[in-house]
Structures are given as C-alpha cells and as structure tokens.
Amino acid sequence: MATDIQDLLAFVAVVQGAGFREGARASGKSASSLSDGVRRLEARLGVRLLNRTTRSVVPTEAGAQLMARIVPALGEVAAALDVVNDFRDRPSGTLRLNVPVSAARLVLPAIVTPFLQLYPDIRLEVMVDDSFVDMLAAGCDAGIRYDERLEQDMIAVPIGPRWQRFAAAASPGYLDRAGRPEHPRELLKHACLRGRFSSGALPAWEFERDGESLRIEPSGPLIVNIGGAVDLAVDSAVAGLGIVNLFEDWLRPYIDRGQLEPVLEPWWPRFTGPFLYYPGRRYVPSPLRAFVAFIKLQDRACS
Q: Is 70 helix (H, G, I), strand (E, B) or coil?
C-alpha cells in the first residue's frame, strides 16, 4: 500500500508540474523515480494515464479523471494527519502559497522572515505565477490575489498594504528629450514600455483624477511578460527608453534615487491592496492557520 501511495504522489507531481522535470523539482524527487512510479501505476491500473511527447506531458482522459478524484482525497489525508499538529506546542509542516510577482516583490519580504523565525518548524514554499492558475489544482494551500481576481467561495484576509497606486515614470533624460506629458492622452505620442499577461492580454493603462477615469492603449518599443520580465522594463526606463507604468512601491526606490521621475502623478489610480485567500470549506492545516493569525496580528499592529 505504501508503494501505491508513493506512485500516486508521483503521478500528481508530474501532472501539477506539467512534466517530469518540474514535477521532480517541486516534489524533491528525481525525474527517473517519478517516471518509474507513473509506469508502475499505469501497469497496475492497466490504462495509460499520461500522454508523453518530447515537448509536453499531459494527462489522458483517464488520467484527468483520476487527478480530479485523487487530489481532494490526498488533501483529506493531509488534513487528517495535520490534526496531530493540534497536540504540538508549535505548528509544523509545509505551507504552499501561490502568489503573483508583485506580491513576492512587495508584500512577502516584510512577512516571511519574521513568520519563519516565529515558527521554525514550518517550511514555506512560494510558487510565483502571474497566470492566475487554480490555486488548489496547483497543489497550494493558499494564494495572494487582488479582489478582482479572487475566486468564489474563498475566505479572503487582507495582507500587506491596504492601499496601493499604479505609477507612471520615466528617466529625466527621456522626459527632457520627449517632453513631460500633462494629460494621459499625451502618452499616445510617447514611447511606452508595456506588459503582457501570459494569457496574451495586454492591459490598458488606467488613470483617474477628480472623478474622471481614462483607459489608455499606448504603444512603444518594448513589451515584456508581466512577471519575470518586469525588471527589464524598469531597467529600460531607467536607461531612457520610455515611460513605464507599474506599482508605485516597485518604482519608488528608483524615483527616490532620481533615476526615474514621476509622470502624471495627480492621475495615478488608487486601489485596495492584496488578499490572502484559501478555501473556506476545507480543514485549514495548522501552518496556514498560523500564517493567517500572523498576518492578522501584523495588520492590527499597522492599523
């Protein structure tokens, strides 16, 4: 039976990682051991669970149905084992979070170290992803999103700053050459450095002032993937390539050092900060309970 469970875990790791290499990295196993486990499972069940090509590994119809049933079941097993934690002096175990790059950059740094110092028996795994994946399907306990991206039937707890702004900025050299826009529509005549989601969507730049809201679709010489390539857009703006539009907290260090200059600051839109979200209809594992209590305590201390 132990071997059966390990083979099921190997199958789940491969599907969640969309391949043996990523599955091995996430699970801490070798790719060959995962491959052996899946092969044994397929032989035992007498059906192919994965379609393998040189470029991708995707579940067959049978594999997809097994995945849909086995992930909740494994979650229940983990929850049952976690009950033991209630009898410990300190919670332990692994907490897996799915977060966007902005949260990893701007929210978690002030939280992670003091939390793990307070709970040394907890291991935190952070999956950074801006594609808005299904948090549970990705094998995570909780996620961080903004309110317009929150999934239904989830408990949402404020985490990090309660209010944020999007900011436009450019290098002083660029603005000396191209001029300093006084209205968002003037951005249509400027070189703007934009970001694209992994879905292919190219979000508009939004501005607001005195009840007036505008959505601008500027153009420019550079489009980067929202996520890992955002720093390239910032570095290009610092180098004088054009105007960048990003979280104010992300750009603030460059503005304070004089490398970037605010653009259209009276028009910067304000919005509510992010939330930690997690399922409300499942047993909450002790590492997540500890994390929720910690961020609530931090929020009260800052308010």
A: helix
